[in-house]
From TrEMBL, chain A:
<protein>
    <submittedName>
        <fullName>Oligopeptide transport ATP-binding protein OppD</fullName>
    </submittedName>
</protein>
<dbReference type="InterPro" id="IPR017871">
    <property type="entry name" value="ABC_transporter-like_CS"/>
</dbReference>
<dbReference type="InterPro" id="IPR003439">
    <property type="entry name" value="ABC_transporter-like_ATP-bd"/>
</dbReference>
<dbReference type="GO" id="GO:0005886">
    <property type="term" value="C:plasma membrane"/>
</dbReference>
<keyword id="KW-0547">Nucleotide-binding</keyword>
<dbReference type="Pfam" id="PF00005">
    <property type="entry name" value="ABC_tran"/>
</dbReference>
<keyword id="KW-0813">Transport</keyword>
<comment type="similarity">
    <text>Belongs to the ABC transporter superfamily.</text>
</comment>
<keyword id="KW-0472">Membrane</keyword>
UniProtKB/TrEMBL annotation, chain B:
<protein>
    <submittedName>
        <fullName>Oligopeptide transport ATP-binding protein OppF</fullName>
    </submittedName>
</protein>
<dbReference type="InterPro" id="IPR027417">
    <property type="entry name" value="P-loop_NTPase"/>
</dbReference>
<dbReference type="GO" id="GO:0005524">
    <property type="term" value="F:ATP binding"/>
</dbReference>
<dbReference type="Pfam" id="PF00005">
    <property type="entry name" value="ABC_tran"/>
</dbReference>
<dbReference type="InterPro" id="IPR013563">
    <property type="entry name" value="Oligopep_ABC_C"/>
</dbReference>
<dbReference type="Pfam" id="PF08352">
    <property type="entry name" value="oligo_HPY"/>
</dbReference>
<dbReference type="InterPro" id="IPR050319">
    <property type="entry name" value="ABC_transp_ATP-bind"/>
</dbReference>
<dbReference type="GO" id="GO:0055085">
    <property type="term" value="P:transmembrane transport"/>
</dbReference>
<dbReference type="InterPro" id="IPR003593">
    <property type="entry name" value="AAA+_ATPase"/>
</dbReference>
Length: 326, 322
């Protein structure tokens, strides 16, 4: 049953700017199994989107994948030529973005934009592509698919546009779907619709999803496995249950405690003091040191390696799992 | 708690849709339709709804940042909409606003000190000599240090900018603050800091807030009373505990069930509403929610349900609720 689909090994994506090297993704490793939903969570600037872009090889100057491997079905994507990567992107791996308005081309009808994928990857005739596109539009829950085929992005609402993006991503029945904040720009009721849809198509096509979001609630509902990122590093990873029930990195604990809950009432919210550090010239120490409540002098001696909590649950903290009893 | 500070009665706001070379009015966007509520001193009313439901328009119209189409707003028993410019101006310091986007609501060419001090001088609250002292005092209350007075907004992070926004509102000793999505643009850990700050300030000075947000969990945390808006009307209003424990309107129920919980062991069954919010230029007849309501009956498309008061002051606008 367990089949490795994607393996990211020690991935480093750096941006070489005038002010210094920004280590947006710094030595990140994880794995996605077939049919699994992996959630990547973190605050803005933690490198979660850059990670997605790196997998898709969409990093542009001055950014570069400086080291590491992205193995997709055993093949290293980081080493492929541009031509080779274009055959995989949109076919085996596809991506949906946060802002469906800016990621659709305003001067083409949405139908043509979906059909383009099929014409490019599947060598379909125009008529076949149109038929398949109408089918896809229906699959993502849009009524009157024929009519919507010929409409332009501005004629559709935010939720509809996101559905179109999903239809486009699904066109070639990819094995891996990367969803970068797919519901952040949407209202809660529309978000519920889109999440429901993602769950359905995942089952239907038996694909894996990498779900990137800052919303812990979305992760808790959707993901099987969670990766928590902070300042370009993975600070904790494990199955959803492990991470949410037994958070072991002080950052994860803080995040969970500082989110106001719908089903709970408490007088004061917990806050993590300070703010996310800049990513230029981070010291060789735990990046969370300045904001950590349980820090000690040992935390300054290099970035802590991942320590095993149990099973597949890891945390990059020298005190991982221990502080809660103190 | 009992003294009513702000009372809104049947507030209406229509925006004209203009078209053609003569800019003739072709219709109206009915952004706010007969909204009534009141806020007591020291109380927070949370106003929730999805984008386009008119919640921000309510906030702006109350402060007369938009002119209203109809209705009355009493602030300390004075009808704000009847005030002349000058009278309004003298009332302004009492009613302030914190905006959503701290990136666009601060003038990039002014230093933090002058951003906060501007209003103090303008309204004659303070002499030039004392200005600096007062500004520093306000900044410290908002968690900003004194050495930041000469910096420009671009040098700050989102959370700090929102603190500047709050400091600006705080400077004039207001009694009522409209917070329009003050934490929506911020990360979770920063969000918590700002929410706590708002709560502390309320405790200290006894402000009343109108807290506008789309995030139900944030609203639950900060509000005493919550009103839910849909397409320009309030569909349900109750004390916080009532509304979250016993939502009566099907829209509120759907809204609450749509919020993902941070609890992977308890993945609940969501009520997923079909379709999108209808066009406010041409809202559905009868109950505005009937096109998406899972329980809609015949009466719903014909008669507009009024806001009925049930036990515990729980108000709901639905033919079938209760």
């Amino acid at each position: 049953m367990k089949e490795e689909l994607l393996q990211v090994r020690n991935l480093c994506t750096y941006f070489y700017t005038d002010t210094g090297v920004v280590k947006a993704v710094n030595d990140v490793s994880f794995m996605v199994e077939r049919g699994q939903t992996v959630g990547i969570v973190g605050e803005s600037g933690c490198g979660k989107s850059v990670m997605a872009m790196s997998i898709m090889r969409l990093i542009q100057n001055p950014g570069k994948i400086a080291a590491g491997q992205v193995l997709f079905k055993g093949r290293d994507l980081a080493g492929l030529t541009d031509k080779q990567i274009r055959r995989i992107n949109g076919d085996r791996i596809s991506m949906i973005f946060q802002e469906p308005m800016t990621s659709l081309n305003p001067v083409f009808t949405v139908g043509n934009q979906i059909a383009e994928v099929l014409l490019l990857h599947r060598n379909m005739s125009k008529r076949q592509a149109r038929e398949r596109t109408v089918e896809l539009i229906t699959t993502v829950g849009i009524p009157r698919a024929q009519g919507v085929f010929d409409s332009y992005p501005h004629e559709l609402s935010g939720g509809m546009r996101q559905r179109i993006m999903i239809a486009m991503a699904l066109a070639c029945e990819p094995e891996l779907l990367i969803a970068d904040e797919p519901t952040t720009a949407l209202d809660v009721t529309i978000q519920a619709q889109i999440l429901e849809l993602l769950g359905e198509i995942k089952k239907q096509y038996h694909m894996s999803i990498i779900l990137i979001t800052h919303d812990l609630g979305v992760i808790a509902e959707m993901a099987d496995y969670v990766i928590v990122m902070y300042a370009g590093k993975v600070v904790e990873r494990g199955s959803v249950k492990d991470v949410f029930m037994n958070p072991s990195h002080p950052y994860t604990c803080g995040l969970l405690k500082s989110k106001p809950q719908l089903d709970m009432e408490n007088e004061r919210l917990y806050t993590i003091p300070g703010q996310v550090p800049g990513l230029i010239e981070l010291p060789d120490a735990c990046h969370f040191y300045d904001r950590c409540e349980i820090r000690s002098s040992n935390c300054k001696k290099g970035f802590p390696g991942e320590s095993l909590i149990e099973g597949s649950h890891f945390a990059a903290c020298i005190k991982a799992g221990r502080h809660k009893n103190e | 708690m009992s003294e009513v500070l702000l009372e809104v009665k049947k507030l209406k706001k229509y925006f004209p849709i203009k078209d053609g070379i003569f800019q003739r009015t072709r219709g109206h966007i009915k952004a706010v339709e007969e909204v009534s509520f009141s806020i007591s001193r020291g109380e927070t009313l949370g106003l929730v709804g999805e984008s386009g439901c008119g919640k921000s328009t309510v906030g702006r119209t109350i402060l007369r940042l938009n002119e209203s189409t109809d209705g009355e707003v009493f602030f300390k028993n004075v009808d704000i909409f009847k005030l002349k410019r000058r009278q309004l101006r003298s009332l302004r310091p009492k009613m302030q606003m914190v905006f959503q986007d701290p990136y666009n609501s601060l003038n990039p060419r002014l230093t933090v000190g002058s951003l906060i001090g501007e209003a103090l001088v303008e309204h004659g609250f303070c002499r030039k000599r004392e200005l600096k002292e007062r500004v520093v005092e306000i900044m410290e209350q908002c968690g900003l240090t004194a050495n930041l007075t000469d910096r420009y907004p671009h040098e700050f992070s989102g959370g700090q900018r929102q603190r500047i926004g709050i400091a600006r509102a705080l400077a004039l000793n207001p009694e009522f603050i409209v917070c329009d999505e003050p934490v929506s643009a911020l990360d979770v850990s920063i969000q918590a800091q700002i929410i706590n700050l708002l709560c502390e300030l309320q405790e200290k000075y006894g402000f009343s807030y109108l807290f506008i947000s789309h995030d139900l969990s944030v609203v639950r945390h900060i509000s005493h009373k919550v009103a839910v808006m849909y397409l320009g009307v309030i569909v349900e209003m109750a004390r916080k505990g009532e509304l979250y424990e016993k939502p009566l309107h099907p829209y509120t129920q759907a809204l609450l069930s749509a919020v993902p919980l941070v609890d992977p062991e308890n993945r609940k069954k969501r009520i997923v509403l079909k379709g999108d919010i209808p066009n406010p230029a041409n809202p559905p007849s009868g109950c505005r929610f009937h096109t998406r309501c899972p329980y809609a009956g015949h009466i719903c498309s014909r008669r507009v349900p009024g806001l009925r008061t049930l036990e515990n002051g729980h108000q709901v606008a639905c033919h079938f609720a209760g």
